[in-house]
Inverse folding.
């Protein structure tokens, strides 16, 4: 499964990059395939391990922010691996045709 999520600290002002970095550090330390862009961090793995990482990423932000917003989207496809790469490669292939 692939989960795309965004953690936003609330009540800390407009510049939230350092708080988001706390969440991304947790994701990267997990060892699971992941990718971060301007809006979301995507992580790939089994249901329990992915949601555990998301929970720990939120907890990292909660340590310094009085309130946290979480947006989460999941692609649940049993048996599919390397979806973070293969989905993008499929779109790129179609763009070159």
């Amino acid at each position: 499964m692939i989960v795309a999520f965004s953690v936003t600290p609330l009540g800390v002002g407009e510049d939230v990059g350092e708080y988001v970095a706390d969440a991304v550090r947790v994701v990267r330390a997990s060892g699971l395939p992941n990718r971060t862009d301007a809006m979301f961090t995507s992580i790939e793995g089994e249901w329990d391990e992915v949601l555990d990482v998301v929970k720990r990423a939120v907890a990292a932000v909660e340590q310094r922010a009085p309130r946290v917003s979480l947006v989460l989207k999941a692609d649940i496809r049993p048996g599919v691996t390397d979806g973070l790469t293969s989905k993008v490669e499929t779109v790129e292939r179609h763009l070159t045709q």
